[in-house]
Structure to design on (275 residues):
């Protein structure tokens, strides 16, 4: 066994007072929302939105995200367990969130907000997705503290031995994702400030969906299966299957933003005129 392997034996509970405990996962989740709130507020105020509107949108997004994250995990990854133990569904602080469900929750929450306040739906999403990778990175750090969402066995020198799970060196996929999301946040924050005013609403969202869920599709190859998928997990995994619609939706918004559909229509009209 390589001496470079990292032994990971962190207690997921920060501290306890009687039966009440604070977990690292809950702390990182809260910090992710807090940092995202401040940065989103900065972006929106800079574009002329009042703080009151920012606060209301943040509530919509937080509620939609948490419900979507949890229900996504419940429905796609372990429905039989949670339906047999419904109280466990409420224990969000213990981990078990699915980013695909969170994405769906955000889409629905922002749609409801945009309908109520008559604001561009795609324009709002362009702003919100700037901070989503930051929150996602914090969640993955919480997964690391919980020793969950682990990778497949490996002999790379930076492998983690999660003592709560055994003595086999594994890919620290939570760390891979966290690092990628933090870098993505920095790059996308720069791109948004530089180019968003020149792009059609929804174009930035399209790039976000393609990059984020394209990465999610690839990183699944390093992960342990979180769910049995009736015999064809070797072909495609649940996380990959759920990523495909978001990637396709992203390409649609990119094509729409760059006017590719309009070019196609104009080309067809020219052909009709010539004929």
């Amino acid at each position: 066994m390589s001496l470079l392997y990292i032994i990971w034996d962190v207690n997921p509970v920060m501290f306890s007072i009687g039966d009440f405990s604070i977990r690292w996962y809950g702390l990182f989740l809260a910090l992710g929302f807090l940092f995202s709130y401040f940065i989103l507020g900065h972006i929106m105020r800079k574009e002329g939105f009042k703080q009151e509107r920012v606060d209301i949108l943040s509530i919509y997004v937080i509620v939609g995200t948490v419900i979507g994250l949890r229900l996504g995990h419940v429905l796609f990854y372990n429905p039989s367990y949670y339906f047999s133990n419904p109280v466990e569904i409420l224990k969000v602080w213990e981990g078990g969130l699915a980013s695909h469900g969170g994405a769906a929750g955000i889409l629905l929450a922002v749609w409801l907000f945009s309908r109520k306040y008559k604001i561009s739906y795609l324009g709002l999403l362009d702003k919100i997705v700037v901070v989503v990778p930051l929150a996602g990175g914090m969640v993955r750090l919480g997964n690391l503290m919980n020793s969950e969402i682990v990778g497949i066995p490996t002999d790379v020198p930076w492998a983690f031995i999660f003592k709560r799970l055994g003595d086999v060196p594994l890919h620290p996929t939570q760390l891979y994702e966290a690092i990628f999301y933090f870098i993505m946040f920095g790059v996308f924050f720069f791109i948004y400030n530089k180019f968003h005013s020149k792009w059609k609403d929804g174009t930035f969202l399209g790039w976000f969906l393609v990059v984020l869920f394209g990465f999610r599709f690839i990183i699944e190859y390093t992960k342990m299966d979180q769910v049995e998928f009736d015999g064809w997990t070797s072909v495609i995994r649940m996380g990959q299957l759920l990523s495909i619609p978001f990637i396709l939706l992203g390409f649609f918004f990119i094509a729409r933003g760059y006017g590719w559909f309009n070019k196609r229509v104009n080309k067809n009209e020219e052909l009709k005129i010539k004929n």
Q: What stands out?
A: The radius of gyration is 21 Å. Residues 53 and 228 are 43 Å apart (CA to CA). Strands lie at 6-8, 13-17, 20-23, 160-162.
